[in-house]
């Protein structure tokens, strides 16, 4: 499997009905956790779902999906499958202790390989877990991938909201529909049954209102989420009846509704042969 | 004037020297290809436009032949990329920028 060079070309993925980017401006807000559990929640609704880890430098999907070994790119049947999801990540090729020291063009090339040379087959949704920021990976995907929309993940506090706004503006600049904002780590339900707003609360909803995009929901912080992620069995799969899993199922329904509304915004631009 | 949701519905050639874009608000934009090249939004061309003209600059051989567009292709949902006959291809013309560069009689007023 080798990358091809050249200028960005729009990729067509005829078997994939919708491609959803999960993004944030800031790192550490739980993008990979949201991506993974959203993908599993969509699968629980009966959809055919793929999960592409676009974080080339710091892939998280292998540990979250319990893929501990690396595979030969040329002899392995891609994509891998776990818990009913089709998966691709740079972490399946490169051992976790090895650093990927690449400039932007290499990131572009390998993301293009993931999109074009992995036989994703028929999917209702391909979830793309983006790295934080507004850099090479984001540009490659917005210029070449047939994105249906983007889900912006933030935590409630201002320091995250500032960067979430930047991520959101990037998608607007490149005319990828923003499906909405998810507030992760929104609140904590203690053993006493009381609700604690550890990182403050309501910032995601406030930002959504300010920038006029849908607010997709609040996901609570819960030690079980981290425990499940680290053990390679995400909470939506391991504990489907857990209250956190239910919030993800609600999120999956809301995201599906927003995708159905966004299809008119992602028509291809007209072309001209000179 | 560029507005959100504005998008082209058709691109056409008008003779050898012009591009026509028809927009979803009914506007018909016209551009000389030379106008687009002289407003190339790439970082190199923008920097060059900021410099004072050099009266002693010696033209390169490829600057002596008429410049033509080789291809124009969409980039994502937001821009077009023009490849020129001298190989220059780094300018991405966003839809907003294209609309603001319109040379139709109405927009030139």
Short description:
The complex is a heterodimer of chains A (274) and B (109). With 274 residues, chain A is an alpha/beta fold. Chain A contains 9 helices and 10 strands.
Strands of the biggest beta sheet of chain A: in what spatial order? 3-4-2-5-1-6-7-10
Read across the widest sheet of chain B, the strand sequence of neighbours is 1-2-3
Biggest interface, residues from each chain: A-B, 21 and 26 residues
Beta-strand residue fraction of chain B: 25-35%
- Unreliable runs of chain B, pLDDT <50, ≥5 residues? none
Q: Secondary-structure element order of chain B, as H and E?
A: EEEHHEEEHH
Uncertain runs of chain A are 2-7
- What series of H and E elements makes up the topology of chain A? EHEHEEHEHEHEEEHEHHH
Largest sheet data of chain B: 3 strands, antiparallel
Tally of alpha and pi helices of chain B:
4
Outline type of chain B: globular
How many alpha or pi helices of chain A? 9
Number of strands of chain B: 6
Outline of chain A: globular
Largest sheet of chain A: 8 strands, mixed
Summing up helix and strand content along with how strands pair, one would put the structural category of chain A as: alpha/beta
What's the rounded overall pLDDT mean of chain A? 90
Structural category of chain B:
alpha+beta
């Amino acid at each position: 499997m080798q990358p091809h060079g050249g200028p960005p070309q729009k990729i067509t993925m005829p078997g994939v009905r919708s491609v959803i980017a999960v993004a944030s401006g800031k790192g550490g807000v739980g993008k990979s956790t949201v991506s993974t559990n959203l993908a599993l929640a969509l699968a629980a609704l009966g959809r055919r779902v793929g999960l592409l880890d676009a974080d080339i430098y710091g892939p998280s999907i292998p540990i979250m999906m319990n893929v501990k070994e690396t595979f030969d790119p040329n002899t392995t049947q891609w994509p891998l499958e776990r818990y009913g999801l089709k998966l691709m990540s740079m972490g399946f090729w490169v051992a976790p202790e090895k650093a990927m020291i690449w400039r932007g063009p290499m990131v572009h090339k390998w993301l293009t390989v993931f999109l074009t040379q992995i036989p994703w087959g028929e999917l209702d949704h391909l979830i793309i877990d983006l790295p934080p920021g507004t850099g090479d990976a984001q540009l490659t995907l917005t210029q070449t991938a047939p994105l249906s929309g983007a889900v912006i993940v933030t935590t409630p506090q201002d320091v995250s909201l500032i960067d979430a706004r930047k991520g959101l503006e990037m998608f607007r600049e490149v005319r990828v529909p923003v499906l909405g904002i998810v507030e992760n780590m929104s609140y904590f339900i203690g053993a006493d049954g009381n609700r604690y707003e550890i990182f403050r609360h309501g910032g995601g909803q406030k930002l959504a209102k300010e920038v006029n995009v849908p607010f997709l929901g609040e996901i609570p912080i819960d030690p079980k989420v981290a425990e499940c992620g680290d053990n390679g069995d995400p909470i939506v799969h391991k504990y489907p009846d857990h209250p956190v899993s239910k919030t993800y199922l609600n999120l999956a329904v809301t995201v599906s509704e927003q995708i159905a509304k966004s299809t008119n915004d992602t028509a291809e631009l007209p072309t001209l042969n000179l | 004037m560029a507005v959100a949701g504005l998008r082209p519905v058709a691109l056409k050639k008008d003779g050898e020297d012009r591009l026509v874009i028809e927009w979803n608000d009914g506007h018909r934009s016209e551009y000389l290809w030379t106008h687009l090249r002289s407003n190339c939004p790439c970082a190199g061309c923008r920097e060059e436009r900021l410099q004072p003209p050099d009266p002693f600059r010696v033209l390169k051989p490829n600057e002596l032949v008429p410049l033509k567009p080789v291809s124009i292709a969409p980039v994502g949902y937001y821009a077009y990329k023009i490849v020129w006959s001298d190989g220059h291809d780094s300018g991405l013309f966003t839809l907003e920028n294209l609309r603001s560069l319109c040379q139709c009689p109405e927009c030139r007023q």
